[in-house]
What we know:
- The protein has 114 residues and is an alpha+beta fold.
- The chain contains three helices and eight strands; from the N terminus they run αββαββαββββ.
Amino acid sequence: xxxxxIPILFLVVLLACETTDDRMQIIPAVIxxxxxxxxxxxxxxxxxxxxxxxxxxxxxxxNVINAEVTQSNSEVLFGPAAIAAIQQFKYRPRIVNGQATxxxxxxxxxxxxx
Length: 114
């Protein structure tokens, strides 16, 4: 039994001794420009309100890519307006150790209310 425990203990000690770079600096992405979603005329004429969650990525240049609706109370009515608006957002990109980097899985909620 001791022969089985020693390799495991060695691995635990090795992992515990692994150091991380305490000097890593991360500056999160910041929205520089937002665009309002245009209320869909069909929804407005019927007094329909709604919401949309959009997930997207931010490139090293601060642009939005890969936008997709993840949740909505009416994706057909509000999804296209939310996607069109999010694609106009502009970010100061995330900076890791002085280097602009992309960010995946960013989410934003649009509310369509009167």
